[in-house]
Every structure is written in structure tokens, then in C-alpha cells.
Design a protein that fits this description.
heterotrimer, A mainly alpha (about 300), B mainly alpha (about 280), C alpha/beta (about 450), B: about 280 residues, mainly alpha, MetI-like fold, 2 domains, C: about 450 residues, D-Maltodextrin-Binding Protein, domain 2
């Protein structure tokens, strides 16, 4: 009884907190949590819109036997492993190059790199589809001017991953560059002055001082890019439809395919669950790796 | 404050970066020039680097009356602006509560929000649609807006920004007799302005480009947004063929991208400032 | 102290969520006709009311094909994609005031039945669905479609050409159909002085050697003219690729057994080898795994493609683009006769309903559409009527008349569109072609892979 009274009093004391929390949280529950739970729930059923039969782990077993699923996992991880470090390094290099410039010049470069990011994935993919086209794509034409043989960008399983990486990099690096530039701006120049006076070479300054101080930004960027990689759908859908025989299919795309092409919503839900699990695992591991090393 | 040069070979690197900047912009150049080409010209071999017979035909087609393109632009603006405004409000409220308030299960609720940050929409498309249908929000703008306003990243960002704000401000205001709403409105919101503007720009961009959800929820041609309409348009030519007309697609792309680009350039300063707050302050 | 709160908070939250979830989870199960949201019927739900004197409400779903616009005789009402469905509904309602028809347009741009699927998932099941046959078998497999045995008289049944409508377990009502065949830009051949290599107008058949000769003659890389095109990026229009295999004796299924594919045979392997040789000799557009049938249409319209395996739907395009169109059969190997053609059928299905009045009204609407709209729609799609009584009404131009004659001569073949797993079949076929075109598998290996993969899916 005493405990209950305490609870009620506390709840009353917290009423304003609840006021701020509840409206948003209801929406969050309705449109984020409950659909997710329902996906998990559906994954244990054989659901094809008309009937819903309990299937236990049947969907998961079927999933692991599906070649498309295995290819999706492989490709999703491949994209994540290639794009994340690559875009981090490239953005960092670009950021360090444009950082010393004056404000006007800096915003010109920033704007240029970020502009593709402002445009949505659908439009970007449509443009690149045209650029990569085997017949009237401008990319092969430009290459031919340099005497290079035309490449089968999206048509060949050996080059399709590269093509997709190219599109994603040019599309998303802008925001990363902005973040790094800001991060660089936050570093106290006195630190670097002091290091220079102590006789440190520019490289040493960079690796021993700048980089560690950019750690929060790096962590953030790595996490964001990873999340982006796991959600690759529009680009795959428009550019490759999964690539020559699943050479470029991702989990997000395969879920869509399984749901709307096969009509097997239970299986798609199971794959959705696997995607969530994979996201969580990779994010946690990366976070631990990146923030684990403490330097001062 | 003199800016330090970082790293060797500054001039060479700057050249390389400039070239990369141009390369990154080339697809956009291709889109804009493509929008002025007739279909035949878009399929020219070798491709016309600069349109030889530029035409406004594609734009005329889009706005020419067969499709309610202006209506689409209006719908996009309506949805994006509403979503942005509501999202700013809700995310700040949630962020404020998580940052400054004490209540039961605060940590659990917050972790729950974080965990859904990486959730891909495709995983939950069908149940989400069923939920929207059940609430009678199908084919309504509300249905296109509400499911996206509680953006976990936005909540996270606002919380990260508000948390370091000095508690003394709030305490002294309370002592002076200010109500909770007053504190929120006159202290928290103004102080969060940088984060708000950044989040606002991002939310606007996200909702403007939210193709998948909008195409699922909005059924009537009249209620489509510009991006949805343009995507359907690229494959739908008068004359009854199935051909994909890159001229229409590019013009549609320009129309779909222009408003959001202009907004970005107008607010670039705020956007950059606020974006870095969430990341740099970690 | 805090620990105790948190201990029961989490289970309480979980319980609340589970309760909320199951409350919302009632839809999507076997009760097909209830679909009303408890929160009140919005405009968007078709409230299915039975009862005398009350209106019968139907939900008429159809695919918004991008080429069904400006339907002859109804141009004003069919300006936009999907309008034709509304026009049909309006006309029917004018004649039948006790029926209210709501239209749901399935967006064809996505290539799947996504819109309809999501509707069904929320319990909003249609009464009729008009689309290409391949889209509909899925729902037959789910047991949602009404068989029409008791709704047609014998005369009505025999009116259908070639016995494609029977009175046993008939579940789809064909409106019009078109065969996939070889469409030729005759003007390009004339420009290359190669028109004599084409089949003669009264016998539109040729051998594979003749076909290859024709392709070689019209090949003009410097002018950017490609002889033909193969595509394997998406599952769309894969029947065009299948068309090359039928003359070799390949068959997707034997008889009516749709549980095992019979495509894996030496004949099919020969057919695939032939198709590959077209690509290897450089007579098809390079990079087929990045091409779709949309590219085929675009290039054909641009007159950079001489031969297109597609439906005979190019009359309009030919006259506006200024070339002459010519339709012939797929080539057959010299040691065999001409191959049969696969028919692309647009059909109407009537769906099961607990309310018999709805089924009656649906059948009435179906017959109305077949009587008044089948012919104009077939005209706009470049398709052929499926009923004897409508043959005269359809103003078949010279080329289309020749197509009808060709079909009559060589007969038709099925690709398994009656199988509920047809979308999977097409996608698997596309993948097999992809393996073949990028050289990762030989024809025999590809067929073995196809057989294994497809059979696994068919069992489901």
C-alpha cells in the first residue's frame, strides 16, 4: 500500500514529463513499435494474405535455404564493408583539403558535394540508369574517347557492385564531408600549434592529434553510413533489380521481392527480422570497436 | 584565426578534390540537360554532351494539363511542411523529456527509440500499411505525414542537444514561477534553434523524397506527391507505348528536386551548424 | 527503489504492446469479406451491405495499363491511366442503378500487384479483378476466385474461339488476347536491301538460318542500328524470350500437371543455344542483363532496333514514327515445322463473396464489359478478340488480320499462367537467361538449375 501510494505520488510529480512524452510516444508505438512487433509475429506464420497458418521456425529454415537470401546477406554486408570505410576515408581527405580554405570557397565545395544528397534516391537512380545504359549511356561514350572499351556496368556481375558503390558514394559523401569539416573546425588550433612547436611533422599532427579528436564524428559517420547501407532499396530496385541473378540484391530489396513477387509475407517478415538482427549486431560491434579504443 | 593547413601537398590535393567535386555534379548536369532533350535526343549515339535542339517539350508535357503537376507540387509542399513542423515539435518534446526530466522507465523508453533507428521501412511495410488502414488514414495526407514524424534520429539529436543546456536556467525560471509550457516555449525552444533548423531541413528533405511510403499510401492521382507522380510519368507516355522516355524522367527529376534544392541553399548555414551539433558533440 | 519499478515496468510495457498488437492483428486472416475498420467506415472502404432494396456494392479492381488510354468510342472518359475502369463502372452503374461500383486501380508501373495485395492484406477484398492472366493465378491459388461454371449458357461458352472458355472449373473470363511474335521494322530492312530475306506475307514462317541471315543483313553498327534485342534484367515480358524456345519443341509443362516443369529437355537446350548464338554473334544489343522490354520499345520507336519480339501492338507507333510494321512468327529449326504462339490474355476474374447478390452483380458487370468494352480495349492494346461474334466488330487491319490467321494456323502454347506461382516462374526464367547471357552457365546447366529452382517453388 505504501509503495503504491509512493508510485502514484511520483507519477503525479512526473506529470509534466509524461505530458511531453505521451503524444510522441503514442505515435511512435503505433507506427514504429507495433508494426515491428507484428513483423516478428508474422515471421512465425505462413501468411499469403488469405490464410495464416502457424509455421514455427519454418520460414526461417526456408530462408536459410534460399539462395536469394544468402546472396542478399552477402551483398548487404559487402556493401556495408566497402562503402563505410571508403566513404569515411574519402570524406575525411576531402574535408581536410577544403578546410583551410576561406568561408566562401568552403561553402562552394560543401554545396557541390552535398547537392546530390539533397535529391532523393529515386531521381538519382533514374539519372544513373541513363548514364550506365549499354547503348546510349554517356559513361561508355566518355570512356571511348579515352580509348577504353565499353564496360557492362550494370549488366555484368563482376562490375555491378562497383557501379552501385560508385552511385552511393557520389550520392552520400556530401553530408559526411560537412560533418568532418565541422569536426575539424571544433579542434582547438592551439593544440596543433603546440605540437608543431614541439617539432611534430604534419603527418604526426594528423594521426596523433586530429584523428583522435575527430573520433565522435567518425563514430557518428560510421554508424550513419552503416545504417544507410542496410537500407539500400531504391537504388537497387531502379538500377539493377537485384543485379544479374542476385549479384547485387540486398536484404531490404529481397524483402520487397519476397513479399510482392512471391506473395510470401511470412517469409518476407522473417527476412525482415533477420535484417533487424543483422543491423543490431553490426552496429553494436562497430560501436564497440570504434569507441573502444580510448586515446588521450 | 588562421586556418591550419593539414597534410602535405595542399595544391595537388585541392585540384584533385575540385575534379571530384565536378565529377559529383556531372550526374546533375546530365539530368538538367537531359530534361531539355526530346526522347530521340536522349537516345542519341553518341550522346549529346550539350543538347543540340533544346526544347521545353518535356516540361510542357508535365505541366500541360494531362497530369495535375501543380497539384502534386502543392501536395509535396503540404506534406513536407506539415511533417517538418510536427516532427520538430514532437521530437523536441520527446528530446526535452529524455534530456531534462525524470520519470519511470526513462532509460528503457529511450533505448527503445534508439533501437528502432536502424529499422528499414521495408521490413514493416505491410503491418504499417495495415495499421494506417485500420485507423482510416489511407489515401489521406495525415496517413502520409504522421507515420514519419517520430524519427528516432531526430529524437536522439534533440536529446543530445538539450542535455548539455544548463539546468540552472530551468531552475531559476521555475523559481520565478514560470509554467512548464512557458519554460519549454521560451527557454528550451530558442536555445535549441540551431538543432531545430538542422533537423527541420533534414526532415523536409526526408519527407519530400519519401517515395516508397507516399506511393503506397496515396492512391488517387490527385493526391500524389511530385516524386510519385514523376516516377509514374516517366513510364507513361501519351501514344500508348511502354517506352521509358528519359526526357520526361529527367524533367520530372528537375521538377521534383528543384524546390528542395532551393530550400537547402537558402538554409545551408543553419543546416550545417545544426548537423554538426549532434555529431560533433557526440 | 528504482529497481523495483523497472522490474515490472518492462513486462507491463510488453503486455500492453502485445495486447495492442493482437487487437490490431485481427485482419488479414481467412475472413475475406469483413474489412471495415472499427474506427468507422471511411470513404475508401467498400461497406458490403446485403439486403433487399439496398444497393449492392462492388469493388472493381483493375490494372492501370499505361497503354489503355483514349479508348475508341470513349476517348473523353479515358484520358488518364486507369480511367477506363472508372468509365466502365460509370456506364454499368447508369444501366444498373441498384449497383454501386467502386474502382481500385492497381498501379502497373511497379509491375506487380502491389496495390491490390496491400488492400487484400487489410481485408478489403475486391469483387472483380481485370488484368493480364499472369497476375490472377496467384489469387486463384489462394482460393479467392469464384468459378463461373453456373453463370454461362452453352451458347456463350462456344462463342469463345478455340475453346478457351469452358464450363468446367472456368475461373477467368478472357476479354481479349494477343500473341507474342516477331515484330519487324520493314522500312529498316528495305533501307538495307534486305526485305526479300523476310518471310512472305502469306506464310509468315521462317527457319533459324533465314532469321540469322536477315539479322546479319540489317546489322548496321555505324548507323547505330541493332538487329534485335534480348533482355534479362527484370521478369517483365520474359515470354518474349520464351517465344524463341517453343518452335524447338520446348514446353513449360506437360498437359495440366503444373507441379513439375518439363522445360529441361534437349530440345530446349538447343533453343537456348540458338538464342545465345544471336548474342555471341553481336546481333543483339549488348548487356542484356541491364535491359528490359522498356528499352526494346524505346529503341524500336527510335528506329534503332529492327526486330522486336513483342505483342503486335505497334500499329500506332509505326504510323506516327513513319515506318512499316510487319508481323511474323518466331523462327523454327530447319528440321521442325513452325512453332505455336503464346497468347497474352487479358481476363476478368470474379471473386468469392459471402453475399450472392454481389456475385450476381459481378458477373453482370463482367458480361457488360465483355460485350461493350472488349473490342475497343483490344483495339487500343493491339490485341485480338476472343469471341467469334466479335471478330467482325473488331476492325482488324491487314497486319492484325494476318496475325489472326497465323495463330489459327500454328496454334497456341501455354507457359503456365494458370499456376499460382507464375510470377516466380517468370523470375526464375529471367535468372536462367541471365546465367546464360553472362556466360556463367551452359544451356544444359542453366536448364538443370531452372528445373530445380522452379520445382522447389511449385511444390509450395
Amino acid at each position: 500500500m505504501q509503495a503504491l501510494k509512493k508510485v502514484v505520488t511520483n507519477l503525479y510529480k512526473q506529470r509534466w514529463a509524461w505530458f511531453f512524452i505521451i503524444p510522441g510516444y503514442i505515435i511512435f508505438l503505433l507506427f514504429n513499435i507495433i508494426p515491428t512487433l507484428r513483423t516478428v509475429y508474422t515471421s512465425f506464420f505462413d501468411y499469403n494474405l488469405a490464410t495464416m497458418e502457424f509455421a514455427g521456425l519454418g520460414n526461417y529454415i526456408k530462408l536459410f535455404g534460399s539462395q536469394a537470401f544468402r546472396a542478399s546477406v552477402r551483398n548487404t554486408l559487402l556493401f556495408a564493408v566497402i562503402i563505410t570505410p571508403l566513404s569515411t576515408v574519402v570524406s575525411l581527405l576531402i574535408a581536410t583539403t577544403i578546410f583551410p580554405l576561406g568561408n566562401k570557397a568552403q561553402s562552394v565545395y560543401r554545396g557541390a558535394f552535398f547537392l546530390p544528397n539533397v535529391i532523393g534516391g529515386v531521381i538519382i537512380s533514374a539519372i544513373w540508369l541513363w548514364i550506365f545504359h549499354p547503348v546510349y549511356g554517356v559513361l561508355n561514350y566518355v570512356l571511348s574517347l579515352f580509348g577504353v572499351q565499353p564496360l557492362l556496368w550494370l549488366a555484368d556481375s563482376k562490375t555491378v557492385i562497383f557501379s552501385v558503390v560508385l552511385v552511393i558514394m557520389s550520392w552520400t559523401c556530401g553530408s559526411l564531408i560537412i560533418l568532418y569539416v565541422a569536426g575539424l573546425g571544433n579542434i582547438d588550433p592551439c593544440l596543433m600549434e603546440a605540437a608543431k612547436i614541439d617539432g611534430a611533422s604534419p603527418a604526426q599532427v594528423f594521426f596523433r592529434i586530429t584523428l583522435p579528436l575527430l573520433k565522435p564524428v567518425t563514430t557518428f559517420i560510421v554508424t550513419t553510413q552503416l545504417i544507410n547501407c542496410f537500407q539500400l532499396w531504391e537504388v537497387i530496385y531502379l538500377l539493377t533489380d537485384g543485379g544479374p541473378v542476385n549479384a547485387s540484391t540486398t536484404l531490404a530489396f529481397d524483402i520487397y521481392k519476397k513479399a510482392f513477387l512471391l506473395g510470401d509475407y511470412g517469409l518476407a517478415a522473417a527476412e525482415g527480422v533477420m535484417l533487424i538482427v543483422l543491423c543490431a549486431l553490426v552496429s553494436l560491434t562497430t560501436l564497440r570497436m570504434v569507441s573502444g579504443k580510448e586515446e588521450k | 584565426m588562421g586556418k591550419q593547413k593539414i597534410g602535405p601537398g595542399g595544391a595537388v590535393r585541392l585540384t584533385i578534390v575540385s575534379v571530384m567535386g565536378i565529377l559529383v555534379l556531372l550526374p546533375l548536369y546530365w539530368m538538367v540537360t537531359g530534361s531539355f532533350k526530346v526522347m530521340k535526343a536522349t537516345m542519341a549515339v553518341p550522346p549529346e554532351i550539350f543538347p543540340q535542339n533544346p526544347t521545353l517539350e518535356n516540361y510542357a508535357f508535365i505541366f500541360g494539363g494531362h497530369f495535375p503537376a501543380f497539384r502534386w507540387l502543392f501536395n509535396s509542399a503540404l506534406i513536407s511542411l506539415s511533417a517538418t513542423f510536427l516532427s520538430l515539435l514532437i521530437c523536441t518534446m520527446l528530446g526535452y523529456a529524455f534530456a531534462k526530466k525524470q520519470f519511470y522507465g526513462k532509460n528503457v523508453l529511450f533505448v527503445l527509440v534508439l533501437v528502432t533507428m536502424m529499422l528499414p521501412r521495408q521490413s514493416v511495410l505491410i503491418p504499417l500499411f495495415q495499421m494506417v488502414k485500420k485507423l482510416g488514414l489511407l489515401n489521406t495526407f495525415v496517413g502520409a505525414i504522421v507515420p514519419i514524424i517520430v524519427w528516432p534520429y531526430g529524437v536522439f539529436m534533440m536529446r543530445q542537444f538539450i542535455a548539455p543546456l544548463p539546468n540552472e536556467l530551468i531552475e531559476s525560471a521555475t523559481i520565478d514561477g514560470a509554467s512548464e509550457l512557458r519554460i519549454f516555449r521560451q527557454i528550451i525552444l530558442p536555445l535549441s534553434a540551431p538543432a531545430l533548423s538542422a533537423l527541420g531541413v533534414i526532415m523536409f528533405m526526408n519527407s519530400w523524397n519519401d517515395f516508397m511510403w507516399q506511393s503506397v499510401v496515396l492512391r488517387e492521382v490527385e493526391s500524389w506527391t511530385i516524386n510519385v507522380g514523376v516516377a509514374v510519368l516517366a513510364k507513361n507516355t501519351i501514344g500508348g507505348s511502354n517506352t521509358i522516355n528519359y526526357g520526361y524522367a529527367m524533367a520530372g527529376g528537375v521538377v521534383g528536386a528543384l524546390p528542395v534544392t532551393l530550400i537547402f541553399f537558402a538554409l545551408q548555414k543553419y543546416f550545417v551548424k545544426g548537423l554538426t551539433m549532434g555529431a560533433v558533440k557526440g | 527503489m528504482k529497481k523495483t519499478y523497472q522490474k515490472w515496468l518492462i513486462p507491463a510495457l510488453c503486455l500492453a504492446m502485445v495486447l495492442a498488437m493482437t487487437a490490431c492483428g485481427g485482419s488479414g486472416n481467412a475472413s475475406k469479406t469483413t474489412g471495415n475498420a472499427p474506427g468507422g467506415a471511411q470513404s475508401g472502404d467498400s461497406g458490403k451491405s446485403a439486403g433487399n432494396g439496398e444497393k449492392v456494392k462492388l469493388l472493381f479492381a483493375g490494372t492501370g495499363f499505361s497503354n489503355i488510354i483514349n479508348v475508341p468510342g470513349h476517348e473523353d472518359a479515358t484520358q488518364n491511366v486507369g480511367d477506363y475502369l472508372k468509365a466502365i463502372a460509370n456506364e454499368f452503374m447508369a444501366e444498373n442503378p441498384h449497383v454501386e461500383v467502386e474502382v481500385l486501380v492497381n498501379n502497373a508501373a511497379s509491375g506487380t500487384t502491389e496495390t491490390l495485395d496491400v488492400e487484400i492484406a487489410s481485408g478489403n477484398v475486391p469483387n472483380l479483378f481485370f488484368s493480364k492472366e499472369a497476375d490472377q493465378s496467384k489469387y486463384m491459388g489462394m482460393g479467392m476466385i469464384q468459378t463461373l461454371d453456373n453463370y454461362f449458357t452453352d451458347e456463350e461458352v462456344t462463342d469463345y474461339i478455340g475453346g478457351i472458355m469452358t464450363n468446367q472449373n472456368e475461373w477467368r473470363m478472357p476479354m481479349f488476347s494477343a500473341p507474342k511474335l516477331i515484330c519487324i521494322n520493314k522500312t529498316l530492312f528495305e533501307n538495307a536491301d534486305a526485305a526479300h530475306l523476310l518471310p512472305s506475307p502469306d506464310d509468315r514462317n521462317w527457319t533459324t538460318d533465314e532469321y540469322m541471315n536477315a539479322l546479319r543483313a540489317v546489322n548496321n553498327p555505324s548507323a547505330g542500328i541493332f538487329p534485335t534485342i534480348l533482355f534479362a534484367k527484370t521478369a517483365s515480358a520474359q515470354e518474349s524470350m520464351m517465344g524463341y524456345l517453343w518452335p524447338f519443341g520446348a514446353r513449360m509443362f506437360s498437359g495440366s500437371d503444373l507441379t513439375k516443369t518439363t522445360l529441361n529437355s534437349p530440345e530446349t537446350a538447343q533453343g537456348l543455344a540458338f538464342v545465345k548464338s544471336i548474342l555471341d554473334e553481336g546481333l543483339a544489343v549488348n548487356g542484356p542483363t541491364a535491359l528490359t522490354d522498356d528499352d526494346m520499345w524505346a529503341m524500336f520507336e527510335n528506329q534503332t532496333l529492327a526486330v522486336a519480339p513483342e505483342l503486335p501492338a505497334f500499329d500506332g507507333m509505326a504510323s506516327s514514327a513513319g515506318f512499316e510494321i510487319y508481323y511474323v512468327n518466331y523462327p523454327h529449326p530447319a528440321d521442325k515445322g513452325p512453332g505455336p504462339l503464346w497468347q497474352f490474355t487479358y481476363a476478368l476474374t470474379v471473386w468469392k463473396s459471402e453475399n450472392p447478390a454481389e456475385v450476381e452483380a459481378s458477373v453482370a458487370l463482367a458480361k457488360f464489359m465483355a460485350d461493350k468494352w472488349a473490342v475497343p480495349l483490344s483495339e487500343v492494346c493491339g490485341a485480338l478478340p476472343v469471341r467469334e461474334s466479335q471478330k467482325a466488330e473488331a476492325n482488324l487491319t491487314g497486319e492484325l488480320q494476318a496475325v489472326v490467321d497465323l495463330v489459327g494456323k500454328v496454334g497456341t502454347v501455354g507457359s503456365g499462367t494458370a499456376s499460382p506461382a507464375y510470377p516466380v516462374l517468370r523470375d526464375t526464367f529471367k535468372d536462367m537467361n541471365a546465367f546464360l547471357f553472362i556466360g556463367e552457365k551452359t544451356p544444359e546447366e542453366a536448364l538443370v538449375w531452372f528445373e530445380e529452382t522452379l520445382n522447389a517453388a511449385l511444390i509450395r
